[in-house]
Design a protein that fits this description.
The chain is an alpha/beta fold. It contains 23 helices and 21 strands.
C-alpha cells in the first residue's frame, strides 16, 4: 500500500536533521556553476550563513580560505564531471573559524524538465586535525629527526605541486573563457553568463540588455589589407569596447567580427541607447593600418531582458534580429528589438518550415511570360518564373519566399523541381503540336557559384538548344570567380544560350558585358517605361542598344506595356519584346491555351505597323 508522506515529516527533517543540507541548481553546461536554492537549519548552524544569505549565492561560498588548494581543485574536477563524491578537509565558517568537515555532493536530475541539481551534505567533525592539534602533529620527533625531515619535505613538495596545479587550473579556466586574440570573453563564457544573468533576472528581477555588434566591412578589410590588418582591427574594436563599458558589464567576442555586451539596466534606457550610439559613432572613424586608411563601420542590435517577459531566454536571438534589422536598413546604425520584429521572426520561421514541406510536396510551379519577335510578332521564347502553389495562401510570387529559401540553402532543390516541371511542360507542348522554341530560366547568385549547377542542367533532360540561362548583371559581377567562370564556359560548351538580365542597373555595366559576353542583352524595364511620354529618355535606350549590337548581341526590351512601347523599341533595333502588352506571367495550361488560340502570334499588328508612324499616346496595356 502506497502511503503519501505528509509535509510535516519534511518539516521535521529540516528542523531536526543534524546534517547540513543544501540544494543548488546547476548549469547544464558546467556542473561547477551553480546557485543555492534551499538549505536546512543544520546547514545554517554549521556554516554560519543564514538561509537568506545563502540562497541565490554561488556554490563558491562553501569554499573557505583555509581549504587546501588540492581539495578545492578536486571538488571542481568532480563537479564538472557530474560525479558524486565526498571530501574530508579543514574549511571555514562564515566568520572565518576553521573546522574539520565532511562534505558530500550528489547529482540529481529532474526527470520532467531535465534540469540539473546538486544535493550538498555537510557534517561538522569538530576540531580534529585542525588548529593546535594539527600543529602538534607537525612537531618534530626528537628521536627520529630523519623521518620527520622526509615527511616535511614530502609535505612541502605536495604543497608546491598543489600551487602549481592551482595556477594551471586558473590558466586553463582563463583560456577556456577568454578569446585568444582580444582577451575578451569568448562565446562559451558569454553563453554561460547569459544563462546566469537570466537566472538572476528570474530570481531577483535584475533586468539587463544585450548589445549584438557586427562590423559592416570587415571582409573588405581582410581582403584588401590582409588578415594581419583584420586582426589589428579586431583588437582595436575590443579596446574601444573596454573603454566604453564598465567593470560590471560583460564584453565578449563571439567569433569572426561579432561582439556582444551584457549590461545591467539602470534607471533610464538612455544608458543603453547612449552606449549603442557611441559604438556606432566611434566605428565611423577610419581605421589606419601601415599608413593606409580604410572605413569599417558597425551595426548594433539591442534587446532588453525584462522581468515581465515570458521567455527571457530569447533575448540574445532578439538582439540578433535587431542587428539584422539595422543592417537591412543601411548598416552603420543601431536598432532596438521590437514586437514587430518578433512577429516577423516568427513569420519567417513559419515560412521556413512551410518551404521545407513545399519541397517535399513539390508545390513549386513554373509561370511563363512570352518573348515576342519584334519583326514578326511570333513568340520565340518564354521566361520561366517560379511560383509557390501554397495550399492555404494560393499562388505566391518569388518576392514572398525566394530570399528566405536562399538563406535556407534550398534553391538547388527548388531548381530541381522547376527543371522537372519545365521538361514535362515542353513535352506536353510538343505532343500537342504547340510550338514553344525556347524557355529562359533565371539563375540566382548562389546557384551560379554552385559547382553542381551544370550537373543539374545536364540531368534535367531539357535540350540545351531550347534553354536560356538569364544572369543578373549585378549578381554576376559580385560573384565573379573561378567557379563562376567555369560555369559560364560549361554553359557555352553545352550550347545553352546566356542572357544578361536587367542591363544598366549594375555598377559596371560595360565591364559586365565584356566579361560575360552573353548572346542576349535584356534592357531593364525602368529604361523602357518612360520612353513613350518622355522622348528625352530615348537616346539612353538607343545607346544601350548600340553597345549590345556592336558586340554582336540580340537585344530584349523588358517592360513593354503598350503598342507604342513596342514600336518605339523595335525601331530602335530591339530584336525581342517582353512585357504585359503580350501577356502577364501565366500557368502552363494558360500558355498552352494561348498558343493554340493564337498559333503563336502574340502581336498580330507587328507586320502591318510601319516604322516611323507611332502614336505618342500609350494605349491601354493588355
Amino acid at each position: 500500500m502506497k502511503i503519501m508522506i505528509p509535509p510535516e515529516i519534511f518539516n521535521q527533517i529540516n528542523d531536526k536533521s543534524t546534517e547540513g543540507l543544501a540544494l543548488a541548481s546547476a548549469s547544464p553546461d558546467d556542473g561547477a556553476v551553480m546557485e543555492l536554492q534551499w538549505c536546512n537549519k543544520a546547514f545554517v548552524e554549521i556554516t554560519g550563513y543564514s538561509a537568506r544569505e545563502a540562497v541565490g549565492q554561488r556554490g563558491t561560498i562553501l569554499i573557505g580560505a583555509d581549504l587546501e588548494q588540492g581539495v578545492h581543485l578536486y571538488i571542481i574536477e568532480k563537479l564538472m564531471a557530474w560525479e558524486n563524491f565526498s571530501t574530508e578537509a579543514t574549511n571555514n565558517r562564515k566568520n572565518g573559524d576553521t573546522y574539520w568537515q565532511r562534505m558530500t555532493w550528489n547529482h540529481l536530475t529532474d526527470p520532467t524538465t531535465g534540469d540539473h541539481w546538486w544535493l550538498c551534505s555537510i557534517i561538522d567533525l569538530g576540531e580534529r586535525r585542525s588548529g593546535a592539534a594539527a600543529a602538534h602533529q607537525l612537531q618534530p620527533d626528537p628521536t627520529n629527526a630523519d623521518t620527520y625531515a622526509r615527511a616535511l619535505e614530502k609535505v612541502q613538495r605536495l604543497e608546491k605541486e598543489n600551487a602549481r596545479l592551482h595556477a594551471l587550473a586558473k590558466s586553463v579556466a582563463k583560456d577556456a573563457n577568454e578569446d585568444a586574440l582580444t582577451g575578451l570573453s569568448n562565446r562559451r563564457h558569454f553563453e554561460v553568463e547569459v544563462k546566469t544573468w537570466i537566472n538572476e533576472l528570474k530570481a531577483h528581477k535584475t533586468e539587463f540588455a544585450v548589445l549584438y555588434i557586427d562590423l559592416d566591412r570587415f571582409k573588405f578589410v581582410n581582403d584588401t589589407l590582409g588578415h594581419d590588418a583584420g586582426d589589428r582591427l579586431l583588437v582595436s574594436v575590443a579596446d574601444m569596447l573596454r573603454e566604453l563599458t564598465d567593470e560590471t558589464d560583460l564584453v565578449a567576442r563571439l567569433g569572426g567580427d561579432e561582439f556582444a555586451i551584457l549590461r545591467r539596466l539602470g534607471k533610464s534606457a538612455l544608458d543603453i541607447s547612449g552606449l549603442a550610439d557611441e559604438i556606432v559613432s566611434r566605428m565611423q572613424t577610419p581605421f589606419m593600418c601601415d599608413g593606409k586608411s580604410t572605413a569599417c563601420g558597425t551595426s548594433v542590435g539591442v534587446a532588453l531582458a525584462k522581468s515581465t517577459m515570458q521567455d527571457p531566454e530569447r533575448v540574445v536571438a532578439d538582439a540578433d534580429e535587431a542587428l539584422y534589422h539595422a543592417k537591412a536598413h543601411g548598416k552603420g546604425r543601431w536598432s532596438f528589438f521590437t514586437d514587430e520584429m518578433h512577429a516577423q521572426s516568427i513569420a519567417t520561421k513559419q515560412m521556413a518550415s512551410d518551404l521545407l514541406l513545399a519541397c517535399e510536396r513539390q508545390e513549386f510551379v513554373p509561370y511563363f511570360q512570352p518573348l515576342v519577335d519584334a519583326q514578326t510578332g511570333m513568340i520565340t521564347s518564354a521566361e520561366t518564373l517560379v511560383r509557390w502553389a501554397h495550399p492555404a495562401k494560393g499562388i505566391l510570387a518569388p518576392g514572398a519566399f525566394l530570399d528566405t529559401a536562399a538563406n535556407m540553402g534550398i534553391l538547388k532543390r527548388i531548381d530541381e523541381i522547376m527543371f522537372t516541371c519545365l521538361k514535362d511542360a515542353l513535352s506536353c507542348f510538343d505532343r500537342a503540336g504547340v510550338d514553344l522554341p525556347r524557355v529562359a530560366v533565371n539563375v540566382s547568385a548562389a546557384r551560379l557559384a554552385d559547382p553542381t549547377f551544370i550537373h543539374d542542367i545536364r540531368s534535367s533532360g531539357i535540350a540545351s538548344e531550347r534553354l536560356t540561362i538569364e544572369i543578373l548583371e549585378s549578381v554576376y559581377l559580385d560573384r565573379m570567380g573561378d567557379i563562376v567562370r567555369w560555369t559560364i564556359d560549361e554553359l557555352d560548351e553545352l550550347g545553352v544560350t546566356i542572357a544578361l538580365d536587367d542591363f544598366g542597373t549594375g555598377h559596371a555595366s560595360v565591364r559586365g558585358l565584356l566579361e560575360i559576353r552573353p548572346s542576349i542583352l535584356k534592357i531593364d524595364r525602368q529604361f523602357i517605361q518612360p520612353i513613350v511620354e518622355d522622348a528625352s529618355t530615348r537616346p539612353l535606350v538607343a545607346s544601350i542598344v548600340g553597345i549590345g549590337k556592336s558586340l554582336g548581341m540580340h537585344i530584349v526590351a523588358e517592360g513593354v506595356e503598350s503598342q507604342d512601347h513596342a514600336v518605339i523599341v523595335r525601331d530602335m533595333g530591339c530584336d525581342y519584346l517582353q512585357g504585359y502588352y503580350f501577356g502577364k506571367p501565366m500557368s502552363v495550361d494558360d500558355l498552352h491555351d494561348r498558343l493554340i488560340e493564337t498559333g503563336g502570334l502574340f502581336w498580330p499588328e507587328a507586320a502591318s505597323i510601319r516604322s516611323g508612324r507611332v502614336s505618342v499616346t500609350a494605349r491601354r496595356a493588355v
